[in-house]
Every structure is written in C-alpha cells, then in structure tokens.
Amino acid sequence: MGGKIKKKLRSWIMIGIAAVLLTIIISYIAFRPADLSYEKVKAQTGDIITYYSFSGNVASKNRQSVYADKVMLISKVSAEKGKEVKAGDVLFTTVQGDEIKSKINGEVVLVNIEENQQVTPGTLLIEIADYNNLEVVFKADEYDVGALSAGKEATVYIPAVKKEFTGYIREISKEGQIANGVTFYTASIDIEQDGSIRTGMSAEVKLVSGKAEDVVILPMNVIYSDDQNRPFVYKNSSGNTVVKQEISTGINDGMYVEIKSGVREGEEVLYKNDLKLETMLFPEGGKNTRFYPGGNKK
C-alpha cells in the first residue's frame, strides 16, 4: 500500500507543477506588457484635403473650319499651311468675286483647295487653329458633374512638360455623351501658352472635394473595423493591457484618417504589423492626394 500511495502522491505533485506552469504561461500572455506584441503610433494634428480627379487633353480654344456652303470655283488661294493669319485676312477668293476671310487669329493647319478648283457644298476647305489661346477639355461622369461649376478653381498638371498651374472652369456642357452605359459631360479650363505646350497633350485636373484643417489624424493601417463596420483602435489601458476603443472618423486621403472622437492628439494607439489588418471601408479613399502634417500647407 505504501508504494501505491507514494506513486499517487508523485502523480499529484506532477499535475500540480504542470498546473502552476500553465497558470504562469497564461498569466504571462494575458498580462505581459503591450509593447512586446504591439507597435505604437501617436495621433497627430494636421490637415487632410481630398480631391476629385479627372483626365483631359489640351486643345485650341479658338478654331475655325471653313466649309463650302455652295458650289464654288476657286480663283485665288491666299492662305498657306503653317502660316499665321489674322482675323479679317482673306483666305481665298472665288470666280464669282466672293472673298472668304479668317474670323480668328491663328495658324493655318489645313488647305484643301487649289486655284481653278471647283468645290461642292459641305467640302472642308481651310482650317485655322489658335495655338496661343489654349484650354484643357476634360470629362466628368454623371455622378461627379455636380461637383463642377463655372469659375471653380482647379489644379491642372500636364505630365509631358511637367508643369502644374491653377485654372478656373470656364464652361460645362449641358448635354452628355453616353459611353459604356455611363453619361459623360465635358468641361474646359483656360491655360496659358508658354511655348512648350501642344494641343493633344494629356492633362490631369484636380478639384478640392473636402478639407479638414487642424484635426486629429491617424494612419489608415492602425484602424480596424468590427462585424458592423464600426471603426476602432487598440489602446494600452492603465493596467498595461490592450483594450479596444471605438472611434468616429471623417475624411481620409488614402493614407491618413480624420479622427473625430475616441483618440486625442498625442495619444498612443497600438497596432500589429504581423497581422492582416481589417481596415474599414472608407468611401473617400482614392480621391485624396495630399496631406499636410502639423497644419502646414505647402
């Protein structure tokens, strides 16, 4: 009997030791400092600006296309391709004595007639383009056209010449064109010619969509969302344990998010780099292109 008792006693001792070790391990995992498994980031104060972005092309603001409105017999052609003309200059004359004149200042880009040639109604005879007065023409779909208005400021960037400048929307078409089931409207912005810009060059147009100045901001990758898509962050509690903190958010620029409540400026937020973050769906993401930390604008 004594041997059996000693064997059972040893078994209970081993079980007790295992239980103590398990308790120690669990306690370590549950109460170890948050710094060992999380990284930290501090909430800052800054400005976030969101943009609508559109694509367009440089075009000549003034253009004249001369068509024959009746049967004509050309007697003299005064216009020459590549030459400059002024409004009022005679382009060609007819045997009937008609003088066809330019209505704009510009360069002759097409001459489609010769002397002693007879032309029929509807024939394109001469084309003139004003390359000194240019515009950017861009398209906005039916969902974004409401953000446009005549006189609204926009930023125009022309990649081919690496130039960016400020312009103002001059006009917006009232009739749309349908492409792939979506209706598009055209708008134009006047730009200045500096000798390097050519018609047809692609252009990028940006308009301010939203702006939040001197607000609390956090990087997007430290924000999580629950099953109801409610945003939250992780914080380090007074007991040195990790807790969830619900927050309310505003606009974002694809990198930073406006924090309306739940986190104060300078407060630390915890996040894990080794996990695939389940960030919330931000409807403004992608429209934003610029962030100014500390409220300092460039």
Could you give a quick summary of the protein structure above?
The protein is mainly beta and 298 residues long. It contains one helix and 23 strands. It has three domains: 34-49 and 211-293, conserved putative lor/sdh protein from methanococcus maripaludis s2 fold (Beta Barrel), CATH 2.40.420; 53-60 and 134-209, Efflux pump adaptor protein, beta barrel domain (Elongation Factor Tu (Ef-tu), domain 3); 63-129, Beta Barrel (OB fold (Dihydrolipoamide Acetyltransferase, E2P)).
Structure description:
- It is a single chain.
- The protein is mainly beta and 298 residues long.
- It folds into three domains: 34-49 and 211-293, conserved putative lor/sdh protein from methanococcus maripaludis s2 fold, CATH 2.40.420.20; 53-60 and 134-209, Elongation Factor Tu (Ef-tu), domain 3, CATH 2.40.30.170; 63-129, RNA polymerase II/Efflux pump adaptor protein, barrel-sandwich hybrid domain (OB fold (Dihydrolipoamide Acetyltransferase, E2P)).
- The protein contains one helix and 23 strands.
- Strands 2-11-15-13-12-16 form a six-stranded antiparallel barrel.
- Strand 14 (177-179) and strand 15 (182-192) form a beta hairpin.
- It is rod-shaped, with a radius of gyration of 35 Å.
- The model is unreliable at 275-298 (pLDDT under 50).
